[in-house]
Amino acid sequence: MQITTANEVKKGEWELDKNADLLFGVAITSDKEDLLYYRGSQKMQINDQELFPEDFESKLLMTGLSVSPNDRMVNLGIIESGNGKVEVWFKDTNHSNTRFTPYRVTFYFFSKVKIER
Amino acid sequence: MKKIIIHTEEILKQGAKLQFQIKMPTTTNMVKGILITATELDKGGKSAFVGHVPPTIKMFNPVIGWTWLRIPEKRDVFYAEKVKFSNPLKQDLQGIPEQGFSGKPQWWIGGTKRSFFNVTVPMEDVMIEGFYVDRSAKNFTDYKIKIYLELEINE
Question: For A68-89, how does the pLDDT look when each residue is reduced to its tens digit (9 = 90+)?
């Protein structure tokens, strides 16, 4: 997702892999992490089930190099996703510690196929 | 089912003492996690930090306030925290110089991860009472605290 205007609210919709039955984690990164840290917040939902409400700060979904690679994902529990569609409303808000320049935000959704025995 | 709610309070005066209430959905079963952040309010381009973070915040990230949460009439204070500003460079409690990396500190290199503090607070009512006391010593700047509550609700 490219954020091109200060204070904009941008919506993104993505379909999960059709083979994915369960959504269990999310992560967020940016090419300008200071902007994302100070300015970013988002609402996120899957198939109309809310994961994070509006104004949920992006900094709470960010992880850095100091965190083990196995722990960098934010754990959502186990969410049945089916033919999952994820919607994100990302909001950029002015913050006096940053000067806006266009930046990229990337959302990672971790899912897996439920194995039937 | 899990749900997260956010309660925000603005602190506009040094030494402010606030009392507030957080109302939860009527289907709330339990509070399972708590997370509190503090960030400077945008002043339309004028920051007390003037585009950089003072060394005291970077290195020591002092406590700026105290908060308590309680359930009135049922249970006294069940959670208390000393609140610090979200450290803009490291997202940890104390700035630690990166090892082996040169140049301007970057978040990716030094940043960690915030997570909810796990609690088990059964809810019969839908109200949580909160108190906040500002304890910033000097260089006060308007800021807001956000209290995130992770709830278990009945579907």
Answer: 888 889 988 888 877 789 999 9
Interval B85-129: pLDDT, tens? 876 554 543 445 555 655 556 677 777 788 899 999 988 888 999
Provide ipTM, 2 decimals: 0.86
Residue of chain B with shortest Cα separation from A68: B112
Q: Are strands A40-46 and A2-3 parallel, antiparallel or unpaired?
A: unpaired
Say if the Cβ atoms of A56 and B148 lie within 8 Å.
yes
Cα of B44 to nearest chain A Cα, Å: 7
Lowest mean pLDDT among B30-34, B111-115, B141-145: B111-115
Q: What letter represents residue A57's amino acid?
A: E
> Which chain A positions have a beta carbon within 8 Å of B90's beta carbon?
64
Among B88, B114, B148, select the one facing A97 at the smallest CB separation: B88
Compute the distance between CA of residue A37 and CA of residue B112 in angstroms, rounded to an integer.
Answer: 12
pLDDT exceeds 80 at position B55: no
Tokens matching residue B98? 């990166």
Predicted local distance difference test score (pLDDT) of residue A38: 87
* For B92, nearest residue in chain A (alpha carbons): A66
Contact criterion met (CB < 8 Å) for B88 and A67: no
Contact between B17 and B133 under an 8 Å Cβ cutoff? The reply is yes
In angstroms, the Cα distances linking B95 to A27, B52, B61, B68 are 23, 14, 8, 26
Q: CB under 8 Å to A116, separation ≥6 — which residues?
A: none
Of A67, A95, A97, the CB nearest to B113: A67
